[in-house]
Structure formats: structure tokens, C-alpha cells
Specification:
Number of strands: 9
Structural class: alpha/beta
Radius of gyration: 20 Å
Helix content: 40-55%
Strand content: 5-15%
Shape: globular
């Protein structure tokens, strides 16, 4: 089985452009050849979005299964939640969880506009994961350092237990993706949470059908995105009706990987 989480050639090409990499074409050619060879030789191919599936059709004669990214349910302890309440205070906060993957850094900076001024001084976005240090050291952050510092709390890399507590306390999940391929695991987590979600259109790829869930706002990066985050922090949490709960349940791995498991089982029965 060849499982593609994104079209790597497109992703690396964007990263090379962002960092002004010279003479990178031989590497891109090698990545493309590897992707095409892997798909051509596979018995089954799995992709996470319809867009990636369409792109892969010309590379293989094997069945291509849509196996979207999903989420594992999380739980937190009262002790961990109390810790974060003491650190962050009682005001609602937004949460951004990401790795140091370059598109995660640039996406956050681009999505909030020139700086974090659209949020009031008592509103904050908590940064969790290794993306934190890279945002704090970016020219975007330091240019308006004191203003941004009042509105951003750097939590950094956390244990699963600490991160689960932050997820349970977050009022809003922010999904500020502006580039990258495939689909995003953090989008599945945010949508599964039942909280407010502010996402760019790019962040919703693979999850477009969930855009009408209660509390979900999909908006362009820049001032509209930043204003949507600020507005969400002033609103009560969205209602949890039976229909939306059932739809969110389909984001768990047991649902998203079901078609791939069925395809593998069917293939194994072939003579």
C-alpha cells in the first residue's frame, strides 16, 4: 500500500520557494520520480483528499482509496486543567497547535495580518507545539513585539496530557494554513472538539463537508481571519445537537480509515 499524506513534490516546491532555495530542481525531480514509482508499483494507493486522489490517477492502475486524516479522542484531568487556568487566567482563549513545519509558521503570520492588533489586549492565542519558537523569532512577530506579546501566550512543546487539557479549555481553535498539501490533522482535531473554529479555506481541504458545523467560520487570511478569531472569543460556545455530534464522530480514525481497511481485506482475498 502506498499512502500519500500529500503530493510531496508540490509541498517541497513551495518550501523551496519560501526559503529561496537555488538549484533545487534535481531534488524536486527525484521526489516526483519516487512518488510516481511508489504509486505505480503499489497494489493499493491511499490519499487523504479528493484533490490528491485526482492528481494521483495518472500515476497508477491500482485502486485509489480515499482515506482522510482523522482524530483520536482525548481526555484531560482536573489537575492539568486547573494548572492551565492558573497560568492563563479565566478569559476565553484561542489555541493554535502545530509543528515547526515551515507552512505552519508562515500560515500563522499571514493569517493574522500585519500583527495581532485585531484582538483586544485581554484576548490571547495560545501557541502549542514546536511552531512556537519559530513564530516568536520571526520578523513578523518581532516587528510589533510588545503588541504581539500581549496577545500571544507561548506554551511550547507539551506532553500529551498537558495538550489535552489545553484542548478541553480552548474557546476557539485557529487553523491558519495558507499553503501545504494533503489535509491537516489539526483540522480534524479542531472540528471534533465542538468548539469555535476559525479556519482559512486552505485549512479545510479534505474537510469541506464540515464547514457548516455550528461554530465553524471559514474565512480568508488577513484582517477577516483575525477579526473572526476576536469575535469568536466574545461568543458563547456553539450548541451540540445530535446531528452535529454524529457528524463529528465520523472524524475518528475508525471511520476515516474504514474504506482503506475494507480495500486491504478485499485485496488479500484475491487469488
Amino acid at each position: 500500500v502506498y499512502g500519500s499524506q500529500n503530493i510531496e513534490t508540490h509541498l517541497k516546491q513551495a518550501i523551496f520557494a519560501q526559503y529561496k532555495v537555488r538549484d533545487g530542481q534535481p531534488l524536486l525531480d527525484g521526489i516526483l520520480a519516487l512518488e510516481q514509482q511508489s504509486a505505480a508499483q503499489a497494489d493499493l494507493v491511499a490519499t487523504v483528499t479528493q484533490q490528491d486522489r485526482a492528481h494521483t490517477l495518472g500515476w497508477t492502475q491500482a485502486p485509489i482509496v480515499l482515506a482522510p486524516n482523522g482524530v483520536s479522542a482525548w481526555t484531560s484531568t482536573p489537575t492539568d486543567r486547573d494548572h492551565w487556568r492558573q497560568v492563563l487566567g479565566p478569559e476565553p482563549f484561542a489555541l493554535y497547535v502545530a509543528s515547526a513545519h515551515p507552512p505552519n509558521v508562515s500560515g500563522f503570520c499571514e493569517s493574522f495580518g500585519e500583527c495581532m492588533a485585531a484582538l483586544s489586549p485581554v484576548q490571547k492565542v495560545v501557541l502549542a507545539g514546536s511552531v512556537t519558537e519559530h513564530i516568536l523569532s520571526s520578523a513578523w512577530y518581532t516587528h510589533w513585539g510588545p503588541l504581539n506579546a500581549r496577545r500571544i501566550h507561548p506554551a511550547g512543546v507539551l506532553s500529551d496530557e498537558q495538550l489535552s487539557a489545553l484542548r478541553d479549555l480552548a474557546h476557539t481553535f485557529v487553523l491558519p494554513m495558507t499553503s501545504g498539501g494533503g489535509s491537516n490533522l489539526k483540522t480534524a482535531e479542531a472540528l471534533h472538539s465542538g468548539r469555535h473554529v476559525v479556519a482559512t479555506p486552505h485549512a479545510m481541504r479534505g474537510f469541506e463537508a464540515m464547514a457548516d458545523l455550528p461554530g465553524v467560520v471559514v474565512t480568508q487570511p488577513g484582517i477577516p481571519f483575525a477579526q473572526a478569531v476576536a469575535t469568536s472569543l466574545l461568543q458563547p460556545q456553539p450548541g451540540a445537537d445530535a446531528a452535529s455530534l454524529a457528524r463529528r464522530a465520523t472524524l475518528t480514525w475508525s471511520h476515516t480509515l474504514a474504506a482503506l481497511c475494507d480495500a486491504i481485506e478485499a485485496h488479500s482475498r484475491k487469488p
